[in-house]
Amino acid sequence: MKxxxxxxxSLNTIIMKLLEEKGRMYGYEITxxxxxxxxxxxxxxxxxxxxxxxxxxxxxxxxVEVERVDNRLRxxxxxxxxxxxxxxxxxxxxxxxxxxxxSIVNPKLSY
Amino acid sequence: MQLNSEQVELINSFLVKNELVFDDMRxxxxxxxxxxxxxxxxxxxxxxxxxxxxxxxxxQIKLSNSFWVSSxxxxxxxxxxxxxxxxxxxxxxxxxxxxxxxxxxWYVPNTNYTYDNNKQTIQIIYGIWFFIATxxxxxxxxxxxxxxxxxxFKRGFYFVCLWTVVFFFASxxxxxxxxxxxxxxxxxxxxxxxxxxxFKFLKRx
Lengths: 111, 205
Description:
The complex is a heterodimer of chains A (111) and B (205). Chain A has one domain (4-105): Arc Repressor Mutant, subunit A, CATH 1.10.10.10. In chain A, 59% of the residues lie in helices and 17% in strands. Chain A is built from five helices and three strands; from the N terminus they run ααβααββα. Chain A has helices at residues 4-7, 11-22, 27-37, 46-58, 81-105; strands spanning 24-26, 62-69, 72-79. In chain A, α2 packs across α5 (81-105). Chain A is globular. Chain B folds into two domains: 5-61; 70-204, no CATH class. In chain B, a hairpin with a 3-residue loop joins β1 (63-66) and β2. In chain B, α6 packs parallel to α9 (188-204). The longest helix of chain B is centred in the middle third of the chain and has 31 residues, at 77-107. The model of chain B has no long low-confidence stretch (mean pLDDT 87). The chains are: A alpha+beta (111), B mainly alpha (205). Chains A and B meet through α3, α4, β2 and β3 of A and α2 and α5 of B.
């Protein structure tokens, strides 16, 4: 992942936000969507994505649906009810963080 | 270019050969690799495309070791990170309860408590628990599919069996042994979580 130290703490929130918008997604689709939104600036590696997805699933924030697509099985992730609530909280937290960073980095633009 | 069954099977064989043996993780990695080949390298032959894509997975597929799982290079990094998450809570619980047992034995007054004080009661409670745990274990061992949760359950259950044997054959049965049995019983929480997750996965596929 590019600039891993800065992005690392927000990976789970990024995943949850995407799932909130799209309903359900599979691993590869998430990496491509992030790449597309950030115009290739942010690349989520496989080594970061799957442990994050599995952890969110273990915490009960995501649930899994498995479907046969073409010649293989595909694992779709979607937010649980708890996950949907948690996404709102985490996004609010992230927005606060961005605001605070904005105040520090560029005080003139902050409000 | 959509991959055919043989090409998907080739990816599967490669992963199994590299110890990515757990169905719950292998299926999604196969899908990830296949999707990458289909979407980004459809213009070049499969055998060249797969080399490029597998190169991206090199660090994750490379056999590694972990203090919590195995000292040998036995599983790919991506599997180790999941197994670690499954093992650590059970090991931490076990160590904590045993340390409490030792502390009670050494620092609390009247530490002449021995297992013999309540031998029969403890044996009956533990025996019933162990019988139930074994029934769950057998059901899991004979189920189809091989998941990280099945592996974690197996490891946890073997650990429990080992301490059960030590307990019943030990000559001095102090409060430390009672602590070990309690830790075993408390580890049911983790065993059951893994049991449930394994069958939940089987139900989905």
